[in-house]
Amino acid sequence: MLLTAMRALPLLRIGRLFDEAEAGQLFHRLLAETPWNDGYYLAAGRRFALPRLQAWHADPGIDYRYADNLHNSHTWTPTLQALRERVQHLSGLRFNAVLLNLYRDGRDTVGWHADDEPDLGPAPAIASLSLGATRSFSVRPRPRGEAVHVPLPAGTLLVMDPPFQQTWEHAVLADPLVISPRLNLTFRQVGAAT
Q: Which domain holds residue 72?
Protein backbone atom coordinates (compact mmCIF):
# COMPACT_ATOMS: atom_id res chain seq x y z
CA MET A 1 0.00 0.00 0.00
CA LEU A 2 1.23 3.48 -0.85
CA LEU A 3 0.17 6.70 0.81
CA THR A 4 -0.68 9.25 -1.85
CA ALA A 5 -0.61 13.02 -1.33
CA MET A 6 -3.99 14.61 -1.96
CA ARG A 7 -3.88 17.03 -4.89
CA ALA A 8 -6.05 19.72 -3.27
CA LEU A 9 -4.53 19.16 0.19
CA PRO A 10 -0.81 18.38 -0.29
CA LEU A 11 -0.08 18.13 3.46
CA LEU A 12 -2.39 15.10 3.65
CA ARG A 13 -1.40 11.61 2.50
CA ILE A 14 -4.09 8.95 2.21
CA GLY A 15 -4.33 5.25 1.42
CA ARG A 16 -6.15 2.04 2.21
CA LEU A 17 -4.41 0.13 5.04
CA PHE A 18 -6.99 -2.68 5.42
CA ASP A 19 -9.64 -4.17 3.18
CA GLU A 20 -13.25 -4.21 4.39
CA ALA A 21 -13.08 -7.65 6.04
CA GLU A 22 -9.79 -6.96 7.86
CA ALA A 23 -11.02 -3.53 8.96
CA GLY A 24 -14.21 -5.08 10.37
CA GLN A 25 -12.32 -7.69 12.38
CA LEU A 26 -9.92 -5.09 13.74
CA PHE A 27 -12.80 -2.75 14.63
CA HIS A 28 -14.53 -5.41 16.75
CA ARG A 29 -11.27 -6.52 18.42
CA LEU A 30 -10.36 -2.95 19.41
CA LEU A 31 -13.88 -2.18 20.56
CA ALA A 32 -13.70 -5.14 22.97
CA GLU A 33 -10.09 -4.60 24.11
CA THR A 34 -10.13 -0.84 24.73
CA PRO A 35 -10.55 0.62 28.25
CA TRP A 36 -12.75 3.56 27.24
CA ASN A 37 -13.01 6.62 29.49
CA ASP A 38 -16.29 7.46 31.17
CA GLY A 39 -17.26 10.04 28.52
CA TYR A 40 -16.74 13.09 30.77
CA TYR A 41 -14.05 15.70 31.27
CA LEU A 42 -13.39 18.54 33.70
CA ALA A 43 -12.91 22.16 32.66
CA ALA A 44 -12.92 25.23 34.92
CA GLY A 45 -14.02 23.00 37.81
CA ARG A 46 -17.11 21.77 35.97
CA ARG A 47 -17.89 18.32 34.53
CA PHE A 48 -18.91 18.11 30.87
CA ALA A 49 -19.99 15.24 28.63
CA LEU A 50 -17.46 14.51 25.88
CA PRO A 51 -19.24 13.91 22.55
CA ARG A 52 -17.29 10.63 22.01
CA LEU A 53 -15.39 8.07 24.08
CA GLN A 54 -11.59 8.04 24.27
CA ALA A 55 -8.61 5.96 25.38
CA TRP A 56 -4.89 6.81 25.44
CA HIS A 57 -2.11 4.25 25.02
CA ALA A 58 1.56 5.22 25.12
CA ASP A 59 5.13 4.25 25.88
CA PRO A 60 5.99 4.37 29.62
CA GLY A 61 6.15 7.91 30.97
CA ILE A 62 4.36 9.50 27.99
CA ASP A 63 1.44 11.61 29.16
CA TYR A 64 -0.87 13.74 27.05
CA ARG A 65 -2.81 16.80 28.12
CA TYR A 66 -5.16 18.96 26.09
CA ALA A 67 -7.60 21.62 27.25
CA ASP A 68 -6.25 21.08 30.80
CA ASN A 69 -7.32 17.42 30.75
CA LEU A 70 -4.73 14.73 31.39
CA HIS A 71 -5.47 11.39 29.74
CA ASN A 72 -5.07 8.23 31.79
CA SER A 73 -2.30 6.34 30.05
CA HIS A 74 -2.48 2.63 29.25
CA THR A 75 0.29 0.40 27.94
CA TRP A 76 0.31 -0.81 24.34
CA THR A 77 -1.78 -3.92 23.75
CA PRO A 78 -0.42 -6.50 21.28
CA THR A 79 -3.05 -5.34 18.77
CA LEU A 80 -2.10 -1.67 19.10
CA GLN A 81 1.63 -2.45 19.03
CA ALA A 82 1.22 -4.37 15.75
CA LEU A 83 -0.81 -1.46 14.33
CA ARG A 84 1.82 1.06 15.42
CA GLU A 85 4.55 -0.91 13.65
CA ARG A 86 2.51 -1.15 10.45
CA VAL A 87 1.58 2.56 10.48
CA GLN A 88 5.20 3.57 11.18
CA HIS A 89 6.44 1.42 8.31
CA LEU A 90 3.95 2.85 5.82
CA SER A 91 4.17 6.46 6.93
CA GLY A 92 7.93 6.64 7.49
CA LEU A 93 7.22 8.26 10.88
CA ARG A 94 7.79 7.25 14.53
CA PHE A 95 5.05 7.29 17.16
CA ASN A 96 5.10 6.78 20.93
CA ALA A 97 1.36 7.13 21.61
CA VAL A 98 -2.10 6.64 20.16
CA LEU A 99 -5.40 8.35 21.01
CA LEU A 100 -8.46 6.24 20.24
CA ASN A 101 -11.78 8.03 19.66
CA LEU A 102 -15.06 6.12 19.50
CA TYR A 103 -17.85 8.00 17.72
CA ARG A 104 -20.89 5.96 18.76
CA ASP A 105 -23.02 7.33 15.89
CA GLY A 106 -23.35 10.49 13.81
CA ARG A 107 -24.21 12.57 16.87
CA ASP A 108 -20.70 12.09 18.30
CA THR A 109 -18.26 14.72 17.07
CA VAL A 110 -15.03 16.59 17.53
CA GLY A 111 -15.18 20.31 16.82
CA TRP A 112 -12.81 22.45 14.79
CA HIS A 113 -9.28 22.30 16.19
CA ALA A 114 -5.61 21.80 15.40
CA ASP A 115 -3.42 19.29 17.20
CA ASP A 116 -0.88 21.94 18.10
CA GLU A 117 -0.44 21.40 21.84
CA PRO A 118 3.10 22.04 23.15
CA ASP A 119 3.42 18.33 24.10
CA LEU A 120 3.36 17.46 20.37
CA GLY A 121 6.30 19.70 19.48
CA PRO A 122 6.51 22.58 17.00
CA ALA A 123 5.59 20.62 13.84
CA PRO A 124 3.73 17.40 14.64
CA ALA A 125 2.90 14.67 12.15
CA ILE A 126 -0.17 12.58 12.98
CA ALA A 127 -1.36 9.36 11.37
CA SER A 128 -5.09 8.65 11.59
CA LEU A 129 -6.64 5.21 11.02
CA SER A 130 -10.42 4.97 10.49
CA LEU A 131 -12.46 1.84 11.27
CA GLY A 132 -16.22 1.26 11.33
CA ALA A 133 -18.69 3.68 9.76
CA THR A 134 -17.54 6.13 7.10
CA ARG A 135 -17.37 9.67 8.44
CA SER A 136 -16.13 12.83 6.76
CA PHE A 137 -12.87 14.37 7.91
CA SER A 138 -13.47 18.10 7.51
CA VAL A 139 -10.54 20.49 7.03
CA ARG A 140 -10.31 24.23 6.55
CA PRO A 141 -7.40 26.67 6.34
CA ARG A 142 -6.67 28.71 9.45
CA PRO A 143 -8.21 31.04 10.33
CA ARG A 144 -11.70 29.86 9.35
CA GLY A 145 -11.42 29.32 5.61
CA GLU A 146 -13.76 27.31 3.40
CA ALA A 147 -14.11 23.67 4.52
CA VAL A 148 -13.26 20.59 2.47
CA HIS A 149 -14.84 17.25 3.48
CA VAL A 150 -12.92 14.01 2.92
CA PRO A 151 -14.90 10.77 3.46
CA LEU A 152 -12.84 8.15 5.33
CA PRO A 153 -14.14 4.60 4.88
CA ALA A 154 -13.07 1.77 7.17
CA GLY A 155 -9.44 0.79 6.70
CA THR A 156 -8.28 4.23 5.53
CA LEU A 157 -5.00 5.68 6.81
CA LEU A 158 -4.62 9.46 6.62
CA VAL A 159 -1.35 11.20 7.51
CA MET A 160 -1.26 14.89 8.41
CA ASP A 161 2.27 16.07 7.60
CA PRO A 162 3.87 19.25 8.97
CA PRO A 163 2.97 22.07 8.89
CA PHE A 164 -0.67 20.89 8.59
CA GLN A 165 -1.45 21.61 12.27
CA GLN A 166 -0.12 25.17 11.95
CA THR A 167 -2.01 26.03 8.75
CA TRP A 168 -5.24 23.97 8.90
CA GLU A 169 -7.99 23.03 11.35
CA HIS A 170 -9.91 19.77 11.24
CA ALA A 171 -13.13 18.32 12.64
CA VAL A 172 -15.52 15.38 12.53
CA LEU A 173 -18.86 17.14 12.29
CA ALA A 174 -22.28 15.76 13.22
CA ASP A 175 -23.94 13.61 10.56
CA PRO A 176 -27.48 12.46 11.47
CA LEU A 177 -27.43 9.90 8.63
CA VAL A 178 -24.69 7.85 10.34
CA ILE A 179 -26.22 5.32 12.74
CA SER A 180 -23.21 3.02 13.22
CA PRO A 181 -20.06 3.58 15.29
CA ARG A 182 -16.71 4.75 13.97
CA LEU A 183 -13.36 4.15 15.65
CA ASN A 184 -10.46 6.48 14.90
CA LEU A 185 -6.87 5.95 16.05
CA THR A 186 -4.51 8.94 15.92
CA PHE A 187 -0.87 7.96 16.26
CA ARG A 188 1.34 10.72 17.69
CA GLN A 189 4.88 11.50 18.81
CA VAL A 190 4.66 13.20 22.20
CA GLY A 191 7.71 14.99 23.60
CA ALA A 192 11.19 14.47 22.21
CA ALA A 193 11.53 11.92 19.38
CA THR A 194 13.02 8.60 20.45
A: 12-39+48-188
